[in-house]
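Worked Example 4.2. Consider the chain below.
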Amino acid sequence: MAGPPQRVERIVERALSCSVRDCEQPTGGRVAETYLLDLDGDPGRAVCKLGGPSVRTGDVIEPLVLELVTETTTVPAPSVLASGHIQTEPTTRWALYEFRDGSLPTPFPAFGEGRFTIVRQIGAMLGEVHATHQFDQTGGLVRDGDELAVERPDGLWIPEQGRRLADRTGCDPGDWQPVLTHGDLFPGNLLATDGDVTAFLDWGNAHVTTAGYALARAEMRFVDWFWRAFSGATREQLRRELHEGYRQYRSLPPDYETLATAYKLLWLGQSVERLGRHTLSSRGRAQLRRHLRGLL
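Applying the procedure from the previous section yields the following structure tokens:
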């Protein structure tokens, strides 16, 4: 471990009334500047994040999202110890989070039988968050004082296209109910111990989308993404586990089986469009490089 930046030391001293003994930066890509801290007080460990704007709106929303999720659900996610901002140009937002034990379940295909339990717990997390937080419209999340508000992002907004698709095909309205979702679920944003998820991390890209679209995206990232590594039977079992986990809190969207493939294709289209927009600015290119490092 190495010494922390001075501004991180000042944040910890003022917010937690203790000092940093050691500091480590994660090797994986993060949008936020992230530090794992060893403290000389209580708590003994914490995570400090500087910045980390949402790719959809540009606002730093993770502290507000995590306060909402940890206060209203049983989802294992880091609690917010303190948050604020540094008067720089532009303003830098910071937050201190609970340190959660566990390791990344990566590479996911090599994680053994535990991956089935993990995928079921991912489904349960999505089901609980979707059942708890529903909205009137889809969009990105922005800060409105100390609250969250929904705002339509710039560029192509695929979840809304999904809603129109469901409407045009005569699907049940429950398939396009706007719900809160994590926004960046993949194995690198989980911690697990002995096959159980101990934390869902990095909520900075949370947004409001349709339930079917969010479930299809998770299915893509934890099942279909590994089509070369998993047999057809293994993929089908993982799919069943994801759906059964979701049903612990909420029924599957009524026409999910009909629309799931279309949702996955729409997500791929939005991903390509977003990658293109990221290459247009230096900040976007830097975020893209960090994100790609986290995927590899």
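The CA atoms of residues 82 and 96 lie 5 Å apart. The mean pLDDT is 87. Compare this with Example 4.1 before moving on.
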